[in-house]
């Protein structure tokens, strides 16, 4: 019987856990055994007893044949993995290729959750999308909290208050969730992306589409990097448009590259005092010129927030979604209760990051 280990996450401000009790039950039904490190679910308010009730044991997860994590393993943790084992989690093969190198030297197979390919058969394994949904939702709540104005229209005895206007820049999974959440809060919403094909998705959420005339559709559902001339023209037009919004939420990313600068300091200066910018691209430099990654600053009476790892601030549901993604991937590797991965499968082949260095890819 193959043993799956679930260690406690040690990254700063990380509260998620790789498996939750409901998913432990699902894996047990496949004939797998699960061992959870004591306190691993504490950040997500899951006591050890809940894991025991689901059929897991509490003990050392590092001796397991498969170790499942959220964050990439540290050098110390890689040293705890046994040779011939497999680690599953966010392994950052593009941004931190040295992790895959260390795993390879340790004789450990790495399956990167961020490398799940964008195909219909892999949708249930798409951890980047599940966590981006959490981030997009929470970004709007942050914007509403920091704003000096109501989001919905209010009709009171003292008169009517107009709804806030919210602009979302970058309409991937996080951006679409942000638009939907802002709409639910009663704001007037507008979306923008350099990929014109997503305009229909924006409008389907009841939002308006901001047309700037700059397009950069790329491969794999991502935008391509703009030329310097295109970027300058985009920023000029955006700076003019941004001044009319009460809140701007940015989510634009280009895989393996610094985040594109969409909101200039001049654009922030033109915004009304009390407005808010929430920049979800802080981990790769930020979409706003005034962003300070991981901090909230006030510039020109505009609040600029750059939260890092927003999914970790909603660990209960973020862990539940992530655990389902992990379980769906593991189901591809199990036959008769034993770990028997077939790396000719296009999903597993894409996720495996401990082969030759030219195979290290992320597809988000």
UniProtKB/TrEMBL annotation:
Pfam families: AlaDh_PNT_C, AlaDh_PNT_N. Its EC number is 7.1.1.1. Keywords: NAD, NADP, Nucleotide-binding, Oxidoreductase, Translocase. It comes from the Bacteria. Coiled coil: none annotated. GO terms for molecular function: oxidoreductase activity. Residues 144-306 form the Alanine dehydrogenase/pyridine nucleotide transhydrogenase NAD(H)-binding domain. It catalyses: NAD(+) + NADPH + H(+)(in) = NADH + NADP(+) + H(+)(out). Residues 5-135 form the Alanine dehydrogenase/pyridine nucleotide transhydrogenase N-terminal domain. NCBIfam families: PRK09424.1. This is proton-translocating NAD(P)(+) transhydrogenase. It comes from Streptomyces cavernicola.
